[in-house]
Amino acid sequence: MSIYDFEANTLRGQEESLSKYKGKVLLVVNTASKCGFTPQYKGLQEVYDKFKDRGFEVLGFPSNQFAGQEPGESEDIAEFCEINYGVTFPMYEKVDVKGNEAHPLFKYLSKEAPGVLGSKSVKWNFTKFLVDQEGRVLKRFSPQTTPDQIEADIAKLLGK
Fold it and tell me: For 40-81, what is each residue's pLDDT tens digit?
C-alpha cells in the first residue's frame, strides 16, 4: 500500500486519485484558517514555489478537529487561502485527521510515520508528512516545524 491508493475531494468538489502524484515528492499537511500556525501557509507556498518545477507538491487538507479552528466551508477556505496567502498548491476538502472518522489517508500517514513516543494520532493543525517519489511516508514533522526547516529534506529527495 502507498499514498497512491487513496482518493480525496478537492476544495472544488472534484474527486481525485492521489496516484496523479506518482513520481513526485509530497508534503501532506493538515491545515486551519484560525490557528496560531496559520501563517505557515505563507511558508508552505514559498517551499512549493521553490520546488514545484522539480517534482514537488504540497497537499493541504483543512481540518476542524482542533479547537474548531477551521469552521469555514470549502469556498470560504479556498478564498481565505488565496486572498491572504496566495496559495496555489492543491487544497482538498475538510477532513477529520484523527479518531475513528479520520480520512483513510490520515490513518495511513499516522500509522506509517508515528509521532513522538509512537503516537499514531495527529496532535494539532499543521502536522506535516513527507512522502517520497515512490509514495512511501518517510517522516512526520510537528506543527512547530516551519516549512523552511523541511527544505533540506525536500532538496535531498529531489536529488539537489
Answer: 999 999 999 999 999 999 999 999 998 788 888 888 889 988
Alpha helices in the chain (DSSP H): 40-51, 74-85, 104-112, 151-157
CB atoms within 10 A of CB 109: 26
- Angle of helix 40-51 versus helix 74-85 axis, rounded to 10: 80
Active-site residues, by number, are 35
Domains of the chain (ranges; CATH) run: 3-157 (3.40.30.10)
- Residue position matching grid coordinates 494539532: 124
- Distance, CA of 151 to CA of 146 (rounded, Å): 9
Q: How many other CB atoms are found less than 10 A from the CB of residue 22?
A: 13
Bridge-based pairing state of the strands 25-31 and 56-62: parallel
One-letter identity of residue 2: S
Predicted confidence (pLDDT) at residue 24 exceeds the cutoff of 70: yes
E strands, the chain, in order: 7-9, 15-17, 25-31, 56-62, 128-131, 137-141
Contact 59, 97 (CB under 8 A): no
